[in-house]
Design brief:
This protein has about 80 residues and is an all-alpha fold. It is built from 4 helices and no strands. The radius of gyration is 25 Å and the shape is elongated.
């Protein structure tokens, strides 16, 4: 695993991270690693939008939909 150094972290942000790490019962290193991994593995809004666009696109026509509804009604 690669080591990562982050410079110039504002003292106020560092204090918050330390407090949150303590509340979670974790070291600062473990807590910030968890945050970084979570941020890196969570899809971005653009990725989610692209996936939704790909899944939502269809080649069905209104006639196809009407035919499917008619078929379902006839099968009752």
């Amino acid at each position: 695993m690669t080591a990562l150094t982050i410079r110039d972290v504002p003292e106020s942000a560092l204090a918050i991270l330390k407090a949150r790490a303590a509340q979670a019962g974790k070291s600062l290193q473990a807590y910030t690693l968890e945050l970084l991994v979570g941020a890196a593995t969570a899809p971005t809004l653009a990725e989610v939008a692209a996936r939704a666009e790909a899944e939502a696109s269809t080649t069905l026509t209104a006639a196809d939909v009407r035919a499917a509804i008619d078929d379902a009604r006839a099968a009752r």
